[in-house]
Give the backbone structure.
Amino acid sequence: MMYKMSTPMQQNNQRVLAIDPGYERLGVAILENDTLLFSDCIQTSKNLSHPERLQGIGDAVLAIINKYSPDVLAIEKLFWGTNQKTALLVSESRGVVLLEAARAGLHIREFSPAEIKIAVTGHGRSTKDQIIKMVPKIISIEKDIKFDDEYDAIATGLTCLATREF
């Protein structure tokens, strides 16, 4: 598999596509240095078939990649909870995202929920509310955010930028 490699000089202005994986809703964000360029949620309709929902996710991610030309994908690793059906759907959605990122030549960075929590709040067992409160203290957000998935995507992007390992 081929990933885009960066040189130390390029690392100063890396554009990050950050994804909080989901099936009904995926949080997405584009960050560059200390600026949030875009954030939203990709939502899939329950009225569509499973393959159509996955295709919609892929199409939306590809459109964002084409519009913003990110250098790296930062994506949260899956946390396997008790609902295996949901976990499988999210893992398939995550696979579509990884495929589109790989096709676009993005460098791919994966972060565990604990790594993201540590990077954003300083504590690996932070709550969703603590993440939501901390993200706007780290980066300016000039819009109303409806879903925590969007905050999670921004937090994932911030984690990637903080590590500077792309």
User: Anything to note?
Assistant: The first strand starts at residue 15 and ends at 20.
